[in-house]
Amino acid sequence: MRKLIFLLAIVISVQDLSGQYFGRNKPRYQHFNFEVLETPRFDIYNYSLEPEILTFLAKDAELWYAYHSQTLDHDLTTLNPIIFYNNHAEFQQTNAISGGIGVGTGGVTEGLKNRVVMPVTFSNQQTHQVLGHELVHAFQFNIILGGDSTSMKSLANIPLWVIEGMAEYMTLGREDPYTAMWMRNAILNDNVPTLEQMANPKYFPYRYGQTAWALLAGTFGDHTLKPFLVETGKYGMEYGALQAFGVNLDNLSNIWETGLRTHFEPYLRDQKESDIGKTLLSSKNSGKLNVSPALSPNGRWVTFLSEKDLFSTDIFMADARTGKIERKLSSLVKDSDLDNFNVLESSGTWSPNSRQFAFVGFSKGQNILVIKDIKNGKTKKNIESRVFVLLLTLHGLPMEKRSLSLALLMENPISMPLISEQRKYGS
Ligand SMILES: [Zn+2]
User: Fold this and answer.
1) Of 373, 320, 316, 313, whose CA–CA distance to 339 is shortest?
2) Can you give the residue ranges of every domain in the chain?
3) From the CA of 159, how far away is ligand 1's center (Å)?
4) What is the 3-state secondary structure (H, E, C) of 268-302?
5) 309 C-alpha to center of ligand 1: Å?
6) How remote is the CA of residue 107 from the centroid of ligand 1, in Å?
7) Interval 112-123 mean pLDDT
8) Residues 265, 268, 272, 274: is their CA dihedral positive or negative?
9) Average pLDDT in the 33-43 region?
């Protein structure tokens, strides 16, 4: 299951354009000996990935380059470094970016250096998409910053939905079930923004932007992507609409709104909403944000992440029949050795007897596996290892196999390098 908020933040790093202060205020726990793999278009940096994985990533970067270059009718004018970290915990320690990197940051592209910095994620598909997404930003930056009549200032004229939506559209394509869910919800609630209103951050730029581009580029052609970006950068969206699409912004917005409704309304017509079951957890008895539920095998308990207690997002455990919250199973205050939960890649898993709950957290630059006794919320074990991001892949397995895999893993948690483990358990 994809999670509502945390998957959303694949960011571009505009604030990093103004200057670099390497390593400032960022804890680093490990030293990485980077080596470079040169490809026709990229310098690919990494410290310990297996050569075949690195070759695979290099080919992927070249493929994306070919695709983006053709779609945007542009070639990057500078050499392009891509820095791969082996996992998110190690990515968070990067000193290539000055600001802090949160759990929800999928990757970062630096404008001035055309440099992509990202982790290898828990699935090839996600790594592929994040890489493609960040490389769209590398093209966007290069087009705007290298343009005759555009500059750094032009970036401020371009709404985020144009930038992020383009990166999502060019990597996910026109149809994406997750985005479609957002759009059906917008129509159900009669909350379809105009293109101008879409600049309001309450309309999540990745999802609305992807749909807007699917519709506009689908109607007018992909050749509108680049001119709309450039012309909007010069004088704003009104000018961009006229130059790239030949219509004014109101008309363009009508095309978007009508197109969206025409596409999705048939799916919703005559469909009555009737909830199955009952609401267990909502803002009435928990936080506004309640995500990553994991049901215990005996059906008694459900764990979930929530910002219920305001100060941080914690792991709670509730009665799965009544929704009554039994206890806070883990919090960053209580478990002070944890820097964060790895909510992006794992929601945790139960032991077969429903007495223990295991989840992945970040601690001192590493993924660690935390095992909690649910009776008292005490930590039974912290296991440090790079390999626990694969817990997520276990979720797709039947319960018996999952616990078997987990048991194997716990017996010898660092016997294999990350990628081999992923391949072994994820296949
Ligand atoms: Zn982005």
Assistant:
1) 313
2) 1-146, 290-426
3) 12
4) HCCCCCCCCCCCCCCCCCCCCCEEEEEECCCCCEE
5) 30
6) 8
7) 87
8) negative
9) 94
Per-residue model confidence as pLDDT tens digits over 277-330: 888 888 888 888 888 888 999 999 999 888 877 777 789 999 999 999 998 888
CATH superfamily of 1-146: Collagenase ColT, N-terminal domain (3.40.30.160)
Task: Say whether 46 sits in a helix, a strand or coil.
Answer: strand
| Separation of alpha carbons 48 and 44, rounded Å | 12
Give the span between the Cα atoms of 100 and 122, in whole angstroms: 21
Q: Using alpha carbons, list the distances in angstroms from residue 175 to 178, 262, 308, 334, 343.
A: 9, 15, 34, 43, 26
Task: Say whether pLDDT at 409 is over 70.
Answer: no
Q: How far is the CA of 388 from the centre of ligand 1 (A)?
A: 26
Cα 22 to ligand 1 centre (Å): 22
Q: How far is the CA of 17 from the centre of ligand 1 (A)?
A: 15
Cα of 106 vs centre of ligand 1, distance in Å, is 9
Q: pLDDT > 70: what percent of the chain?
A: 80
What tens digit of pLDDT does each residue of 317-327 get? Answer: 999 999 999 98
Q: Whole-model pTM?
A: 0.79
Q: How far is the CA of 43 from the centre of ligand 1 (A)?
A: 21
Q: How far is the CA of 379 from the centre of ligand 1 (A)?
A: 37
Lookup result for tokens 């290539």: 96
